[in-house]
Amino acid sequence: MQELRKQPPQTQPFLYLGGPAGNVQRVGGTAKSIRIFDPAGTFTVTNDENGPNITLVDKEGYSTEIGKTAFVQPKTGMQEQVTAASLALFDKGKVLWW
Predict the structure, then answer these.
(1) Given CA atoms 85, 57, 61, 69 in this order, what sign does their dihedral have?
(2) Which end of the chain has fewer CB atoms surrounding its CB within 10 Å, N or C?
(3) pLDDT-derived band of residue 98, with 50, 70 and 90 as boundaries?
(4) CA-to-CA distance for 51 and 33, rounded, in angstroms?
């Protein structure tokens, strides 16, 4: 894994997967997000032109977003975007809780 840190940044998205023996596989492509989902909910990691974001959504529709997030401010009705150092909690209607 130490060798991976020394490599220059890739021009295409890549995912490095490590195994128990210390071996590493590189998976590449053009997608800018990874989504894992089942009936219980969805886990999405995105790194696109809007910035990095991790989103968790449960089966009821409540969600948590970590990272760069766009939302409508309930008090003002204005569209806002917060930095990658942010945590946002939303209800089923995508209304910001915190």
Answers:
(1) positive
(2) C
(3) confident
(4) 11
Q: Is 0.85 surpassed by the pTM of this model?
A: no
Residues contacting 68, CB < 8 A, separation 6+: 50, 51, 52, 53, 81, 82, 83, 84, 86
- Give me the residue spans of the domains in the chain: 2-90
Q: What is the mean pLDDT of residues 83-96?
A: 87
First-last CA distance in the chain: 37
**What is the model's pLDDT at position 61?**
94
- Which H or E element spans position 88? strand 87-90
Return d(Cα 72, Cα 7) in angstroms, integer. Answer: 39
